[in-house]
Amino acid sequence: MKRHELTDEQWERVAPFIPHSTARTGRPSKDPRLMLNGILWILGTGAAWRDLPERFGSCKTVHRYFSRWQRRGVFAAMIEALQIKL
């Protein structure tokens, strides 16, 4: 496991909050765990989006997931559930 990335146990706790893609056309969706790890890398390092390491994919794609999940309240729901559970 690399720094700023989720362990399997951590992923198991937050995975239920990640929305699943229901699109039936176009490109397949990216791995949500990889996208979340990219988001956490940005938030943990304070780096600019364009400095995201290539292992996470395109910085534009990761930012799109971040923006979409932020608008849908995914992070707020995660934090609330984790506060209650922990």
What does this structure look like?
This protein has 86 residues and is mainly α. 55% of the residues lie in helices and 0% in strands. The protein contains four helices and no strands. The chain has helices at 8-14, 32-45, 59-72, 74-85. Helix 2 (32-45) crosses helix 3 (59-72). It is globular and about 35 Å long. The mean pLDDT is 90.
Mean pLDDT: 90
How many beta-strand elements?
0
Q: Which word captures the global form? A: globular
**Helices and strands: which structural class?**
mainly alpha
Main β-sheet description: none
Low-pLDDT stretches: none
**N-to-C series of helices and strands:** HHHH
Distance between the termini: 22 Å
Helicity level, as a percent range? 40-55%
Q: How much of the polypeptide forms β-strand, as a percent range?
A: under 5%
Q: Can you count the helices?
A: 4
- Radius of gyration using CA atoms only: 13 Å
Summarize the helices and strands and which ones pair or pack.
Blueprint: H1 8-14, H2 32-45, H3 59-72, H4 74-85
Q: What is this structure, in a nutshell?
A:
The chain is mainly alpha-helical and 86 residues long. It has helices at residues 8-14, 32-45, 59-72, 74-85. It has 4 helices and no strands.
Throw out a few tags for this protein:
4 helices; mainly alpha; 86 residues
